[in-house]
Amino acid sequence: MIAGDKLSNEFQISRSPALLKKQWIEFPNSSKGSSYSRSKMFRSEQKKNFNSRKSLKRSSPEDVNQLDALEDYRPYFTWWVSTAQTLVLLLSLLCYGFGPVGFGRHTHSGQVMVKTLSLQQVEWEEPASFWLGPRAADLIHLGAKFAPCMRRDARIARAIAASARRERDTACCIRNDDSGCVQSSKADCSNSISTWKKWTSGDSGPGGRISGSVCGLDPKFCEAPRSIAPHEWPDDITKWPICRKASGDGSAAAGRAGHAAEHMACEVIAHPCCIGVHGQCVITTREHCEFVKGYFHEEASLCSQVSCLDDVCGMLPFMRRRRPDQLYRAWTSLFVHAGLLHLAITLALQWLIMRDLEKMAGPVRVAFVYLGSGVVGNMASALFDPYRAEVGPGGSHFGLLACLIVETLHEWPRLAHPRRVMAKLLSYTLLLLLAGLLPWVDNFAHIFGFITGFLVSYALLPFVAIGPYDRARKVVLVWVCAVSATGLLCLLVALFYAAPAYECTVCAYFNCLPLAPDMCASQDVHLRQPDGV
C-alpha cells in the first residue's frame, strides 16, 4: 500500500475488486497512456538513467519517487517451494536409492530361481538417467507426470484385456515329482515332467465348470468369499476373486490324504508379479520378481486378480479398480526431480529469477504464475506425450521467463536499452528449450507454461495507469488474459480425456532428441521370459 503523503498531490490511489485487487495510480491530467510495474530491476534502471537526456523524455521525478515508495516483499514462496523440492528428492533417494546412471538403457543379468524350479540366466533392461536420481518406475511412484496413471489408457486397457483372454485358456501345470505346480498355458507345460490339469466337458470342475483349473484356487474349497447364489463364481477364471479363507478340505494335508483335488494339494511355486510401468503381469517366483524390481502378489493366483497399475502408480488408490484417476499428478510432478543435477538447475533458476520477481510482485502473484504455468504445461505434456514420465517445474520456469518478458514490455518506453534486455530473455528461453530435448525434461510443458505465464502475468501483475482511458484498456486486457488462461487449462483437460494422442512421432522428437543410442527409448522394462515349466 502506498501512503498518500509520499506521493504528489496529483496522484490518486484506487483499488478495484474487478481488477483482481491490483493497485492502480491515475494521472488524471495526462492523456498519454503508458504503464509500468513494480520491478526493483527497472527501478534501479530508472535511477541510473534518470539524468540522461534520453531518459528525461520518458521519466519524471515523480515516477522515481513513486517507485521508491513501493513496498518490496520477502520471497516466502521461493523459499517454501525450493525447500519442499529439496526435501522430496532427499527423501526419494533415501527410500528408493539411485537408479542406473548413463544414457540409453541399462541391462541387468543374473541367475535366479524361476518357475521351473531351476536356476536360469535372466536379463532385463530399464532406462538409465544422467541426472543422478531414482529409477523411472520410482519417479512414477513418487508422483511424476504419467498419463496412464491420470486417466484410463485405451492401449494399456486393450493389452490387459488380451492378457486376460490368454489367461482364460490356462490351467494348473502339476509337476509329476510332486515338487510343485504353476498356472500356465498348455504350450508352457512340459508333457514329460508335468501334467496339465485342464477341466473339460467330460472332466469338469465344480458345478460343471470347464474354465480352469487354477493352482491353489477352487470355488469348492473356499469359504470366503463362498460361491453361493447370487454370488456364485462364474465359469470364467479371470473373474474369480481372491480366496481369503480356504476350507480344511482344500489344504495340502488333505490332498496328501486323498481328500482334495490335485490342483489344490500341490504347492504353488509361482504367483502374479507386476513388472514395468505399463501394467504387465507374469506368473513367476518371488525371487525372479524381486530381481526384476517387480511387485509380487502372493495372495493372488491369477494376473486377472491384481491391478498392476495400482502398483505402478502408487500415490492415492484409484476410486474405481483399474480406472486411473490421478489427475493431481499435473501438480505433484512440480515437486519431483529426476536427480541431483536436475534439482541443482531448478534451485539456480529459482534463486536467480523467481526470488527477485517475488520481491517485486509478492508471493501470491508469483505462486499463481508458478503453479498455474506448471500445471497447464504438465497437462499439455500428458496430452501430447502420454507414455513418458516427466518431472520437474520446467513449465513453471518458463512461466517466470514469460513474466519477465511481460515486465520488459511494460517498461519498454522507460528502459535505456530495452532491446538488449529482451534479447537476453529470449536467449535464455531458447537455451532452456534446447535443454528440453534431453530426457526427463519436457518441451511441451515449456511451451504451454510460457503461454500460461504470459497470460497470467498480464492478468495479475500490478500496473501504473496514466489516465482513465489507459485504466479502462488495462481492465479489458486483465480480463481477456485471465479468461484465456482459464480456457486454455479447460481445453487441455477436455482434450486429455476426450481425444488423447496415443501416437505422435513428431511429438516424441520435439520432446527428446536421440543424441545417443536408446537415449529416448521407452521407459518400460524389457524382460526376457524364462523357459516353460
UniProtKB/TrEMBL annotation:
InterPro entries: Inactive_Rhomboid, Peptidase_S54_rhomboid_dom, Rhomboid-like_sf. Residues 30-57 are annotated as: Disordered. Coiled coil: none annotated. Keywords: Endoplasmic reticulum, Membrane, Transmembrane, Transmembrane helix. GO terms for cellular component: endoplasmic reticulum membrane. It comes from the Eukaryota. One of its GO terms (biological process) is regulation of protein secretion. Residues 30-39 have a biased composition (Low complexity). The chain crosses the membrane at residues 77-99, 330-353, 365-384, 421-441, 447-469, 476-499. Residues 325-462 form the Peptidase S54 rhomboid domain. This is Inactive rhomboid protein 1. It comes from Eumeta variegata.
